[in-house]
Every structure is written in structure tokens, then in C-alpha cells.
Specification:
Elements lengths: L1 H35 L20 E6 L5 E2 L1 H6 L5 H6 L3 E4 L2 H6 L2 H6 L8 E3 L9 H10 L5 E5 L13 E4 L2 E4 L7 H26 L7 E4 L11 H4 L18 H14 L2 E5 L8 H11 L2 E3 L17 H15 L3 H6 L9
Parallel strand pairs: 3-4, 3-5, 5-9, 9-10
Antiparallel strand pairs: 1-2, 1-8, 6-7
Helix pairs in contact: 1-7
Amino acid sequence: MKATSGTLAAGRYLAVVGVCGLALLFIFSASLSLLSHDGWMFGDYFSQIPRDGNAEWYRNFGGRSVPQIQDQDIFYSNVGSSVAAAKSADIIFLGPSFVSYALDRRTLEAAPQFDQLKIYNMAFVGLRGGEFSRRVINRWKIHPPLWVINADDQFVHFFSNDLNVTLGPQKMPIVAVERSRLRGYLTVVGRNLHWRIEDLVAAFKSGQFTQTGLYRNIANGDMGLDANPSYVAQGNKPMLSARDPNCHTTQAIIDYARTLLKEIGGRVVLTLVPHSQSCVQQADELAKALNLELVAPPFDGMTTVDGGGHLDRNGAERYTSFLVREIVKTEAFKQAFPNRFSATK
């Protein structure tokens, strides 16, 4: 009887401690949010840092001292509404940051037929391989009618089991896949609190509050790249290829691709976002081996933010215009949406 009473008392004590801890965390978070002038902490998830008070965006890439990325935990642990938005999409784009920079939302929304579809950009900054995307897709059962996958091979091929993130000179394992859902959520909360503290310290030193980092849209997956002056600049240099065109795919890449495509289901179109090291030859060989259609825009007129890596807004508009014009002609598009458009029947 005494043991039972002691157990109940210990349970009540732990419950009180837990409630008090949550209350203190709430007060601390609320104070940071108000002092940071970045909007209230309730939005898509607790502690979210909105963009200029707009809760449709969350700070995804930040850290004034050490750069960190948020969306790996957001997607793997299903924090907020991003996964739900992807699950409701008609078309999902997959790939690394090249895809994030290459898709122009205004062009997508203005394109015939595409303007009637929900397009989600599920590219991940810093991730070259597609293994992380494969795990997220399988874990949360994301199955759109059509996938558009960037068949790029810089450093590692998208169709590989590579599970590393590269941010600047740093390359490290993706630790988000090792976390439970609760731990992933708490990691997101803690990271946001850390970023807010950094913002306050910077504001104290400079005398004014300034936002930092890049934000990601919850509803469509886009990155807020207009915060990058080079992205919106006019007169950026045109892209030039520095890659030996004699480059080829491998059987290992083909085998992995077959496995991934079988798991994710749906129709697939391959694309290749132009950059200085992209190889059309290997992408074409891969498409033929997989019996898929490839849409690879030419380099002509493509301009970049960094001289050959990521497209700027003008380059993105040109790439997206070519892409949507060609995708609607593919058999994969027609089979994915057989009754949606009279022109594709």
C-alpha cells in the first residue's frame, strides 16, 4: 500500500515538474518571439520563425555563427504541415538545391495546364543523393500522380544511397534520420530558440533587429530566394559548361533508380537542371535504361547567381518555361492526368 502511494506521489511530482517545465519553455519562447519582432510563436508549429510575420514561411536555413538547416527534421519527423502539403500535390519535384533555384513559381502558375495543378517543390538544399527523399516518401506515404526528378550526378548521383548533407565546406551525416518523431520536433523547437537568441544578440550589438537566413514555404516547398541579392540581380553572367561531355551512368545507379522508382510509384519524368558540371550524356543514358522521358533544357541564355552553379531568377524563368512546355508533351504527364485536360486525351 505504501509502495503504491509512493508511486502515485512520484508520478504526480513528475507531472507537476513536466507541466512547470513546459510553462517555463512557453514563457521563454514567447519572450524571445516578442523581443525578436519576428511574429508570434504559433503558426504552423510551436516556435516557428515566420518571414516578416508571414506564418506561411518558416526559417529553414539559418545560424549566424554555424549554418544549420531545418527542413530535414521538418520532413523526416513530420513537423507542421509541410508533409501534408506534399501529400496533396499533383506533381512533386525532387533533387538538390539546383532544383530549388531552378523552379520559378510565377512561371509555373501561369503555364497552361500547370495552372490547374498543385505543384510541390520537395528539393532539399545540401542533399545531393536521393536516399533521404526516398525515406521521407516511404515513411509518410507520399504518392503524387507525377514525379519530376533531377537526374544530376555532381559529387554523388541523386540515384544513390548517400545520406550526407553538405553546407559550405562541411559534409556530415544526416542525423535527422536517427531521431524519433518527438526528438525531431524538440530539435526543431530548440534550433529556432537558438536562432532567436542569436538574432537578439546581433540586434543588441548593432542597435537594430534584422532578419537573416532563408525561408521555406509550407504550402509549395519553395525557398524564399529573393532575399539573395545575386538571385534577383540583372546582368549576371551566362552559364558555361566545364564538364567533359564524355560522362556516363553506371549499373549501380540504374539499379538504385529502379528500386526507388518501384517504391515511390506514380509516373516519372527525368530532368536535368543546367549547371557548369551537369552531364546530359549520363542523364540520357539513365533515362533510356529506365525507359523514362528526359527533359533537359539547353544552356542558352541561362544565367546564374554564382557563375555556373545555381540559376538566378532570369535563368529560372527560362528553365521553367522550357520545362513546363515540354513536360505536358510527355506520355508520363498524359498518363498521370488522363481525364484532366482535353488536349492530352
